[in-house]
Batch of 2 targets.
Target 1
Amino acid sequence: MIEEVPLADGIILRPAAEQDVEALVRAYDRNRDHLKRWEPRRPAEFFTVEGQAKRLKGLLEDQAQGRAMAWVLADGEEIVGRATLSGIVRGPWLSSDLGYWVDGGYVGRGLATGTVREVCRMADEELRLHRIAASTLLDNAASQNVLLKTGFEPYGTADRYLEIDGRWQTCRLFQRILNDRPAT
């Protein structure tokens, strides 16, 4: 069972839940400028209760079907970050893609590193995955450092890989092999 994990400074990493909608709206609104450079352009609806409810509902449905796992970083009632394993594939792959962010006011406290470390542990021990992939923009040195510190290895670049901030951008690709257990 995926559990709640204490990080630093009283912040916890816990599974996302339906009741997180309003806190997610506040978190994304508070971090619009901080995240703009690293995320897709968001329509106005994204920053509303209705938009976040729809997005979270879809993510939780994917989670119930075993296709995703979503966490939030919580400081009391406020959400100060997110982590998601998406595109979980079973069978011989046992693989997923990792995405994460930390509130601009909380950067520099080791929260991203702690989050990625714990997500990888749970992906291995609880979800029984073999591999996690992640990508960063070429100039996102902070995120690359987090991935390197948590056991990810770079394995290449992909031209025009993700549409971020309104244009297709080249990314550096990383992976972490969690274990060599048989897939069966």
Target 2
Amino acid sequence: MILPIVAYGDPVLKKKAEDISKDYPNLDALLINMFETMYNAFGVGLAAPQIGLPIRLFLVDTAPFSDEDLSEEEQMKLKVFKRVFINAKILNEEGQEWAFNEGCLSIPDVREDVLRKPIITVEYFDENFKKHTEVFDGLIARVIQHEYDHIEGVLFTDKLSGLKKRLIKGKLNKISKGEIDVDYRMRFPNAKKKR
């Protein structure tokens, strides 16, 4: 089932999400719905807060990035990387920060360069509640960091300079009111109710 994606301005996107346990109700169905929602919106990641749930859960499928202008090895890694992250914690971030033009399904039509470190160590549970500690790098690390920020109540726009924030403020207000054309289901926090 395709779920509506919560738009910029909804308080759930600014809330630090809660851990869940393995008996979280209907987790399997939720994961199926989240993947379906993400693919329908042509996303590479989706966090539970983006569908209105303040829980520490996100998923990633970097296959769409595999046709970027990258080394063959990196393209192959991106093509097959599909993962569920439950109760994730980034334990370490290292390396020289690099800029990449990011967007977000909750903030359609806004793209900006964001600086992030290239190598991260993450502790998380998969969909079977098996615990992992892994090191990720490159675009995979970036997508994980972006989704991880969602469960921490942080949006990529929060990482922009004061000037950049001022320049996109009008656009963000329009998004929160639903004054935007988007080709996937969304829920707008400040939309005028239709009579």
